[in-house]
Amino acid sequence: MKAIQHLRTINHHKWLVMKECFQVGLYKQGLLHDLSKYSPSEFLVGCRYYQGNRSPNNAEREATGYSKAWLHHKGRNKHHYEYWIDYSANPEEGIVGQKMPVKYVVEMFMDRVAASKTYKGAAYTDRDPLVYYEQGAAKLGKMIHPDTAALLHGLLRMLAEKGEKETFRYIRQNILKKR
């Protein structure tokens, strides 16, 4: 039963991201978003740790100390800032977040919105993705590039204050048109 529930969750999340990406003109990314979640190394772990109200990767991490599924996922999906962590060109800086291409920052934003909608269900508000970000990734310092963090945080704040329709319009007309 967990396998069916997990598949439904993945499909629902992927459907939401696809619809959101299509609304701003990111058609290819909408279609290809999170395909690695269907691979055995991610899907089977997701079934085992499925809970329905949060990512199975968190439960796997709590059980084993790390998440093999997450390590696989973030290494294959450019919309995760973790994909872009590398050694700095300046050896004194060590490992730092690299600046993400804008289209992947927008997909990351859509991913966070869809994840909040998926796990919050009817209780979702446009403020939820911002709250989740501020409780976690916003505290990462040099692991997320300052420009990437500023764009993502700005879009999440806009969503919380102005809503989805206005934020998606802004992304279409101001963020993605500049590319």
UniProtKB/TrEMBL annotation:
Domain of life: Bacteria
A Pfam short name: DUF5662
InterPro entries membership: DUF5662
Protein's name according to its UniProt entry: Catalase
Species assigned in the record: Mordavella massiliensis
